[in-house]
From TrEMBL:
Secretion system C-terminal sorting domain boundaries: 275-350
Compositional bias segments (type: Polar residues): 53-66
Organism whose genome encodes this protein: Hymenobacter volaticus
Region of interest: Disordered: 46-66
Signal sequence segment: none
NCBIfam families: Por_Secre_tail
PANTHER family in alphabetical order: LIPL48, SECRETED PROTEIN
Protein name: T9SS type A sorting domain-containing protein
């Protein structure tokens, strides 16, 4: 959640629970180049909660209090990998603009949600019709598996024509029924593996062109105006080299050492927990390079053993899948794997 006037570039939201870019209480900053990559099985755990790409309020009750929430976003990418039928039902909207917010979104791409944009409430509709809030040169793909009626919506009873607004030729928003039409590499949507997602655009992608910076809201020198690509990435993957998209394989006992880079002959490889965070049910996975007697424990944040899942069990060579206890209370835990040669561990979070 962002407030104030801070400006930012190169933001990453990865496998979050609630909303990715959440603004309220007068935030009026500028943001360019932000990416969100969701795990379809990890979403808002609150009763009745929703996971949205963007969610924006002026304040909790939608007053006219100033300063009004009026952030400007450009070159954002929000990805919910499909198929939507397999995604957590909490995933709802690429953009939920409500409660008198006046945020603006330009040159961005949103995929996979059940709704593209929900314009929520008369005050919010008024901000759009007045020009205080603007949406231009954006791309929406594979929304509700391509359902034509799901891209842009308002609340029941509203007379605001969201489809006429977003599909107006002067605003140059574009919709595609499938994410495949965007021309991404399949590695763009990789989650929780040793291979990081490759966000840079292939040369044939339709997203390489179509950006525009002529709107007055983008006139500020903060916004780079050298590229024509829509979304957070052009030909260069600016996330490469300084990000970790599978932190569960990081060895926190030795700075700079990750389990994916351990020697090929080490007995336990590719240790991970999924989903992570979990609401309770989770699976520990690891590759056992040599058959061994294995003990698997779950420890709490103080190092106390709270469960012994495998106790000196003989396991054969290959990938192992171990179900972790579903009775764990909310908190931070460590799953450890002990063999005759070593002990390795991975952190995971239980959120209930």
């Amino acid at each position: 959640m962002v407030r104030g006037t801070v400006n930012a570039k190169h933001l990453i939201a990865f496998r979050g629970l609630d909303d990715d870019f959440d603004t309220d209480n007068g935030y009026s900053g500028k943001v360019q180049y932000g990416v969100s990559l969701r795990d379809p099985q990890v979403a808002d755990v609150a009763s009745g909660g929703a996971s949205n790409g963007f969610e924006s309020d002026n304040d909790a009750t939608g007053t006219t209090n100033t300063p009004r929430t009026s952030a400007t976003f450009s070159n954002m990418s929000v990805f919910l990998p499909g198929p939507l039928t397999a995604a957590d039902p909490a995933f709802q909207r690429g953009v939920h603009i409500r409660r008198n917010s006046a945020i603006s979104l330009f040159n961005s791409v949103i995929t996979g949600f059940r709704r593209g944009v929900l314009v929520d409430g008369a005050a919010t509709e008024g901000n759009i019709t007045s020009g205080a809030s603007a949406f231009k040169n954006n791309v929406f793909a594979d929304i509700n598996s391509g359902s034509a009626t799901s891209y842009f919506a308002v609340n029941t009873g509203s007379t605001f024509d969201a489809n006429a607004y977003f599909n107006d030729a002067a605003r140059a928003n574009t919709t595609f029924t499938t994410v495949g039409a965007l021309g991404y590499s399949s590695t763009n949507f990789i989650i929780n593996t040793n291979v990081p997602p490759a966000f840079n655009l292939p040369a044939a992608s339709v997203l390489n062109t179509g950006a525009s910076f002529t709107d007055a809201k983008l006139a500020d020198a903060f916004f780079d105006k050298t590229g024509t690509f829509r979304g957070a990435f052009g030909a260069t993957n600016w996330a490469q080299g300084w990000t970790n998209f599978n932190p569960q394989i990081t060895c926190y006992n030795a700075p700079g050492l990750t389990l994916s880079n351990r020697k090929a002959d080490e007995q336990v490889q590719s240790l991970s927990v999924a989903p992570n965070p979990t609401e309770g049910a989770a699976r520990l996975t690891f590759d056992l390079k040599r058959a061994s007697t294995v003990t698997v424990r779950v420890l709490d944040i103080t190092g106390r053993t709270v469960a012994v899942v495998r106790n000196g069990q003989k396991l054969s060579t290959g990938v192992q899948n171990v179900e972790l206890p579903t009775s764990l209370q909310a908190g931070l835990y460590v799953a450890s794997v002990t063999t005759a040669e070593s002990t390795q561990a991975v952190r995971f979070v239980v959120a209930k």
